[in-house]
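quick one if you have a minute, typing this from the bus. theres a chain ive been looking at and ive put its sequence and its fold in token form underneath. please have a look and point out which stretches look like helix strand or loop to you. anything you notice is useful, everything is just below.

***
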Amino acid sequence: MALPELISVEDLFSAPERTAATISPDGTRIAYLAPWQNRLNVWVQDVDDDALIGIRSTARLFGDRVKPAVAGFYAGGYVLWMSAALLVGAGWVTLAGSVVVIAILGWQVATMDRLLPGNPLVRFKANHWAGLALTAVLLIDALA
């Protein structure tokens, strides 16, 4: 199996095209820093303009079917995570503890409202809690 191409040090540590992005409290605009004419500028972009520049989101892609679509992605991810865990020797602690992960992902799907500004983004950002819970469960299982 061939190794992937290495990222050059220059590319890895080069200045980003956009940085310090933040979302407005109402979820309708994104502000970020980006250079223009050799100066760093503050840019504000309307979220509705995202489609024009190619930024996509699951909530926009699936529209009214976003909840079942996201639930399907989460179910598929969970099955793959548990399959991988079992293949490397995880035991009942991982399976039992993964209920926490299911609860977090289930909360995201149950409370998602694509028409409420910022709601899908808050749910998406909560994925780190699912990742932390899964990591904790795997560590506990490894130490047990």
Remarks:
- Residues 66 and 91 are 33 Å apart (CA to CA).
- Helices lie at 9-12, 50-53, 58-62, 66-87, 92-111, 119-125, 127-143.
- The mean pLDDT is 83.
